[in-house]
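Morning F.,

Quick status update on the modeling queue. The single chain you submitted on Monday has been processed. Sequence for confirmation:
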Amino acid sequence: MTFHKLLIANRGEIACRIIKTAHEMGISCVAVYTEADTNSLFVRMADEAVKLSDTYLNGKEIIAAAEQTGAQAIHPGYGFLSENAQFSRDVIKAGLIWVGPSSRVITSMGDKLKAKDIAEKAGVPTLPMTTDPKKANTIGYPILIKAAAGGGGKGMRIVEDKKDLKESILGAQREAQTGFGDDRVFIERYVASSRHIEIQILGDSNGNVVHLGERECSIQRRHQKIIEESPSPRVDSNMRDAMGAAAIKLAKKLKYESAGTVEFLVDDKTGEFWFLEVNTRLQVEHPVTEEVTGKDLVYEQLRIARGEELGYSQEDITWTGSSIEARLYAEDPSNDFLPATGTLIAYENDTNIDARWDTGIEQGSVVGTDFDPMLAKVITKGKTRTDAANKLALALESLHIGGVTTNRDFLVSSLRSSHFLKGKTTSDFIDKAKPKRSVILKDKSLEQATIAAALWIQGRNRNDATILKNIPSGWRNSRLPRQKIGFSYLDKEVFVSYKSNRDNTFSVNEDSTAQILNWSGKGIDIEINNSRFFSKVTQDKDNLVVHGPWGDVLFKVLPRFTLPGTEIQAGGLVAPMPGKVIDLKVKVGSKVKKGDTLVILEAMKMEHQVKASKDGKITKVLIKKDDQLENGALLMVLDK
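Structure tokens below.
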């Protein structure tokens, strides 16, 4: 079953990741892409590419692309069609090699209810659950509603009170239908202070199965993972052996082939664990396992798909050091982690820091609402867990990024928190550790950033000058006012005034002295009042992204003359994120109470409810169902 050309039925960073390993094995790669991905990195990395008519979910078109290009195998990555049993069967029926477990396994594990039943029969412990909302009380609140046909946080709701059960079920069903084409949900006991521990398994077609240890994925927002690590700070050798044995027992019962993950929920206090699900694909967080075991999981998947044996036993698996992964998302942590959109004006990591960047984006990439908002996975390895955490925080801090709101500062704050460093990484980590959602520059840092920005701009002006280029910036033969430049930052305007001195320094604002030690189109090496630092600077029209010891800050360069702006109408409710209106619950004249749901928006297959901020009456409605909205769009007016 050998093959030398592989089609990747996916996009973004995972497509890039698969291409990298396939090329190392001498396998050429075919990409498929939609209109939205025409200029994406993975398309250029592939040896050839085929444009799809509309979506990555069109299995027939993807198989046709493989036949058209002569690809002999298909790797589905994760998400999209990776756990679609019918697609797997169609691939094999077309005479192609499927890189993944059998369709039989995908079918049995894709249905979470069936998977629980199989796990119980295999002797693996499971949580109490029901499919009947009337029996929710027998489980006891809080409870967790989950989609039967998928995961990834879609179709999932925590319910604290019985009065919220009905609306939560309806929301979960809508999200499950959108995400998986199946609106079935079930109800499970919710363990508040828990850990999500998963065991990586590998199986070949000859019945050999091993586990590669655990990953902890407990730190989540909206039921989606954001920081993962291996090994877990909570798991000792005895727990690892017990969970590993349970995972292998289930895998052998399934006759599992390829890479997969058996997920468990662990009670942090007692160490008791319960089966959650089997992910019949590569996981987003697989790099941390690769870092501590030295096993390339994509390489192993491709070998197994060729019919090769693992060639090693459980006793041959060893673990060294600690590895941590952070998911860099285009989202606003200060606005309930809602997805963000825009164009990446700046995107450049510091290559001097030892970190692995799995990404499918680059400077200039457009982040829209079509796909998951993950920009990159950043992975580090250290001799100790503390070393790995510090390296990861430093790598993120050193990233020059701007143009799109991200969770970078939130991730850094999480990694540097005492809760994280002490291993207190339970599922309620965000509530307990309370990491900073964003960084607001203090006065001194803001002044440094604006001075660096202003003097970088004057350096650019001198560099671009065609007349009197060698005359110092701002030089006059008479007494004239200082040069002045203004920036908007968040909701304020900041001005910098400066003049050039005869000793190659600048007098800035009222009492600062600055000296440019080096200038380039990419940044400025500057000393301000004896404090020296280097700032990377990237400009796009009137937007300026400035990186320094404070992180990245986005300025808008103010024009010398401005026209009066417009104001949002009093009482107006605006869209908290870009998205589609999937439900409008009020009309003009509706009387509402504070907390009532007014509009339900959908972006990236996740729902968000816009609620009334006060009691009142709807006097204007400016949207309708199925409208596609921009962030900040005026939805309606609510008057008292």
